[in-house]
């Protein structure tokens, strides 16, 4: 089994990812940490506990993390995810409590335990990278417990929060810049699962409505119905769930290594991921110095990942 940690701002697509990670037999979900993003931190925590209960995984520790970005004001995406962040589904809510530790402390403890045992962890952030930045700057020694980071965020050429920037990076670009710099300095392998592939793993309404027989399957159906309604289509992308698919089945994702920077200024471009496709000589002589070189997702086998998700959540 692959040990994993998810960091989430649980809206509809994070819920798709949580169901997959919680139920797939090849993943050992060690913990889930929460950060403000799609909705406020209280709703994120409530949604996360609710989805894990539906997945039959009340054993997974959940910790409350950063409520706001490092510098800029918090900005939600309730227009996409509903007022409660879970599509206003009126789904039965969890009654359990979070882990008493702050997310950063829970992450530190789990990663240091992994370093001690040699069972290295894949970290899957699906939200603004605030918690990850805080952890890597406060407890850099915890990186010894990491195998890799596979994050949903950014894009090589498009945006959604703005014309230039993807929502997770745009929400806390300073955190994203810190994470890339820390990964470069600490030797952490990073994969960016961005908007270039985000929309390409689609479950049709017909496929979703065939799901039944368990709370996980029924919630999965409702999530796709809501995403279909939001985008006025006959199906819905599993969004963040694709990043979890990429950890389970890496061969379904095409990546290429590029230096990547985060734009921290600019009236129209703040939060953009600058994917550097220049030749090696130009990159080596960049006046800004070396950037973090990471794997950037360029294509995905959407049908393969959709089938993986359906088989697991059902």
UniProtKB/TrEMBL annotation:
Domain of life: Bacteria
Organism taxonomic ancestry: Bacteria, Bacillati, Actinomycetota, Actinomycetes, Propionibacteriales
Pfam families attached to this UniProt entry: IU_nuc_hydro
Key words, A-Z: Glycosidase, Hydrolase
InterPro entries recorded: Inosine/uridine_hydrolase_dom, IUNH, Ribo_hydro-like
Record-annotated Inosine/uridine-preferring nucleoside hydrolase domain positions: 4-306
Example of a GO MF term: hydrolase activity
Protein name: Pyrimidine-specific ribonucleoside hydrolase
Originating organism: Kribbella pratensis
């Amino acid at each position: 089994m692959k040990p994993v940690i998810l960091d989430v701002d649980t809206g509809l697509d994070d819920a798709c990812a949580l169901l997959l990670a919680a139920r797939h037999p090849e993943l050992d979900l060690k913990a889930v940490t929460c950060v403000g993003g799609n909705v406020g931190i209280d709703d994120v925590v409530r949604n996360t506990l609710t989805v894990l209960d539906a997945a039959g995984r009340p054993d997974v520790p959940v910790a409350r993390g950063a409520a706001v970005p490092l510098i800029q004001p918090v900005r939600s995406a309730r227009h996409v995810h509903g007022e409660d962040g879970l599509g206003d589904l009126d789904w039965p809510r969890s009654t359990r409590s979070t882990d008493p530790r702050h997310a950063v402390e829970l992450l530190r403890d789990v990663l240091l335990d992994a370093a001690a045992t040699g069972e290295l962890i894949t970290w899957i952030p699906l939200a603004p990278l605030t918690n990850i930045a805080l952890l890597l700057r406060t407890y850099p020694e915890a990186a010894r417990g990491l195998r890799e980071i596979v994050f949903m965020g950014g894009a090589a050429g498009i945006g959604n929060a703005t014309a230039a920037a993807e929502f997770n990076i745009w929400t806390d670009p300073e955190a994203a810049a810190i994470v890339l710099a820390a990964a470069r300095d600490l030797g952490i392998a990073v994969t960016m699962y961005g908007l270039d592939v985000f929309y390409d793993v689609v479950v049709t309404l017909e496929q979703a409505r065939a799901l039944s027989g368990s709370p996980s399957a029924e919630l999965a159906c409702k999530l796709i119905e809501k995403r279909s309604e939001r985008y006025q289509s006959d199906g819905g992308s599993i969004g963040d769930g694709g990043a979890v698919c990429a950890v389970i089945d890496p061969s379904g994702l095409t990546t290429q290594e590029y230096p990547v920077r985060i734009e921290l200024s600019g009236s129209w471009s703040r939060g953009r991921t600058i994917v550097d496709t220049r030749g090696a000589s130009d990159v080596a002589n960049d006046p800004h110095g070396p950037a973090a070189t990471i794997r950037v997702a360029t294509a995905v086998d959407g049908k393969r990942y959709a089938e993986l998700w359906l088989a697991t959540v059902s």
